[in-house]
Design a protein that fits this description.
D-Maltodextrin-Binding Protein, domain 2; alpha/beta; five-stranded mixed beta sheet; homodimer; Alpha-Beta Plaits; about 280 residues; globular; 3 domains
Chain lengths: ~280, ~280
Amino acid sequence: MANKNHTHAMVAFQGAHYAFSEIAAKRYFGEDIRILPCRAFEDVFNAVEAQEARFGIIPIENSLTGSIHRNYDLLLEHDLTIVGEVFLRIEQQLIANPGVRLEDIRVIYSHPQALEQCRLFLTSLKDVDAVASYDTAGSVQMIHEKKMLQAAAIASRLAAQDYQMQILKEEIEDIPENFTRFLIVSKNAVPLGEPNKTSVVFSMKNIPGALFKSLSVFALRDIDLLKIESRPLRGKPWAYIFYLDFVGDMRQEHCRNAIRHLEEITTFLKVLGSYESGNGQGK
Amino acid sequence: MANKNHTHAMVAFQGAHYAFSEIAAKRYFGEDIRILPCRAFEDVFNAVEAQEARFGIIPIENSLTGSIHRNYDLLLEHDLTIVGEVFLRIEQQLIANPGVRLEDIRVIYSHPQALEQCRLFLTSLKDVDAVASYDTAGSVQMIHEKKMLQAAAIASRLAAQDYQMQILKEEIEDIPENFTRFLIVSKNAVPLGEPNKTSVVFSMKNIPGALFKSLSVFALRDIDLLKIESRPLRGKPWAYIFYLDFVGDMRQEHCRNAIRHLEEITTFLKVLGSYESGNGQGK
């Protein structure tokens, strides 16, 4: 872990105390960091840009439900650098006030991502509404504070403990292989640790085979691609922006050459950062 | 339009009467179709599989907010064929009960996609919660039936008219270039009209440069790619399934050759359908 110099750093994240982002931040930096919970992902980016927080941590991808597209969009809109990466296994718990039974529940609150990770469990229930809230841990806080006895929340074990709530059912995610990949962003472009992975975003010239040609700049240099993600280009329907992760560090010459080559066929290109890969399951 | 023989067909869609999917279906097939509103996207697929409806229509992509991933996943899980495509410009209206003023509103209901398309408008409001509901038109119905005077819904003009509601603010989408691409699915694999576009889904062997190689089967045959979308492979964290749209029809030899070539480097491949491209803005 690449955290030794930042054990007391202020780290911003989306969600309430004991959100999964906070747990990931502590996994990465240690338990002694100071935390800045934010209401929206955008607030995380703003807090780091305004230097209210040294780092921000954002979920970028879940192994069950896919990319968190809002954060891809925000990486483009804001001028922060990816300096680190961390993976966390996500165990979702069904949490209710003490004494409440499963058959009492009529509504279950959680972040849309968490609801999606528990789709099979939720569809197995009869006459229960799943309601999207802005946060997992915040949903626990709400049903606790409002003493809601026909409601439950989906959140982390720590969130349940924090509010002295009951775990009605453990590990309700669809399958146990449920991991989230988080990125650490900073205004300061110095990577934490030994970078071996780079993320870029680009849009292509309108030329035949543009996508093939843009991937060939990596293939021709034996650079492995780890992920490709497309997002719509605003104001230009059915044109796309591509986010690409590849193996390598921008301090390496073959990576710089590939990016220079890529610039020849793109209308826009931004290197989001080189960083040390987290120890993701299977990655 | 490729609809002449199906003017009275039963068409399933997600949402309540006057959902955008219904408007798109009528744009495609004409006003005389019979409609089967469904609660969830999955119900649309099930209704078509059970032949309760001849066709299903599903939104697959929006030019502002990107792909509707749940429908990509469902295309894979179910055994239906894409037989047509239609594009619709989406104008979102802020709708309330008669007499309600904008400053009375404390909560705004709509489908998450619609809320996302109106992000700029929503963030410009103070002390107003945006709450995700299962449907745009259904949200109008709810605030109408419950006579909610501090609530508004985001939905189509037709939904407002249907419930004799007031349009508080017109065209609140972030930018006017807001189009949704819908697919027509059927159990019967006969395309409507003249197919010129094909969609496939595949997962790749774990070989170096696999993605580059899979795109090269099209580039080597001068086949243009229109879209690539990646989705997580369930149970195998950080491996992906790719959805690809390309120009051509599986009745053409060079397309069949490309797919045969692609099969050499994939572990799984499914042709979702060849169909006539809709007249999308810029597509």
